[in-house]
Amino acid sequence: MKELKTKLFILLTAALLFQSCSLVPLTGRRQLSLVSDTDMFATSLVQYDQFLKENKLSTNTTEKNLVSRVGNRIKNAVTVYFAQHDLSQELNGFAWEFNLIESEEVNAWCMPGGKVVVYSGILPVTQNEAGLAVVMAHEIAHAVAKHSNERMSQALLAQLGGQTLAAALQEKPQKTQELWMALFGVGVQIGAVLPYSRLQESEADHLGLIFMAMAGYDPNASIVFWQRMSQKAGPKPPEFLSTHPSDKNRIKKIKSQIPEAMKYYRK
Ligand SMILES: [Zn+2]
Question: For 23-79, what is each residue's pLDDT tens digit?
Fold first, then answer.
């Protein structure tokens, strides 16, 4: 009887997974998707507004302008790239924003729908405009490849019994909000970290190189950035490394993708 139940459970789970997998046009890969863009964007707006209320925006005009300039250049590159691949409709609902907050934490993220936040603590690691472009293009690549839909779906399945995002928010608002923030390495000290998978990291590196090159930044900057960032690893890695786990093969792989990205490079 127990065995039958197990079998039935596996069958049902498999059926659910099959039904909820959707093909992501940008990557051509099937992703688990229990959450619609509409739900993701709506949740994103609420959590992002809340985050901005609870954190201090930078008053450093030079650094704020830098974040906004790099963000806008990458946004324009993404818009062109999607148009060239006949995917413009995939950016429907995106309302881009680029903010710099004052924080010692080494972090940056782009929430679904294009809400980008850079923490001032990451600037010593990015060091210059091209270094910042590495980070922002990488984060934006995660967002346009819908990686957070995939991670939220996995979290809902693993931790909230496969509920929809809307139902989870209604029934377990706090737990769901914590899960959401853990996707971006916010408040990781209280909740569990939800890192991007190696496959998602690799996709974001690849797309990020192309986007930054199209935006006019030398993709070679990514090698030195990741070398500097990997030196920050240790028993207490920064938020950025806890959500973007790095391994020694990453830099090797990025190096092999530079020639392709250079074809997109416009100075
Ligand atoms: Zn990443």
Answer: 777 877 888 778 888 999 999 999 999 999 999 999 999 999 999 999 999 999 999
CA–CA distance, 80 with 93 (Å, rounded to integer): 16
Q: How far is the CA of 173 from the centre of ligand 1 (A)?
A: 26
User: Phi and psi for 100 in degrees, rounded to 5?
Assistant: -110, 125
Reported as a single tens digit per residue, the pLDDT across 67-100 is 999 999 999 999 999 999 999 999 999 999 999 9
23 phi, psi to nearest 5 deg: -85, 120
Report the amino acid identity of residue 120.
S
Q: How confident is the model at residue 164 (pLDDT cuts 50, 70, 90)?
A: confident
Distance in Å, CA 109 to ligand 1 centroid: 9
Query: Are 219 and 87 within 8 A, CB to CB?
Result: no
For residue 2, the CA-to-ligand 1 centroid distance in Å is 41
- Residue 109 half-sphere exposure toward CB, CA atoms < 13 A: 26
Q: How far is the centre of ligand 1, averaged over its atoms, from the C-alpha of 204 (Å)?
A: 6
Distance 86 CA to ligand 1 centre (A): 25
Token couple for 114: 């294009």
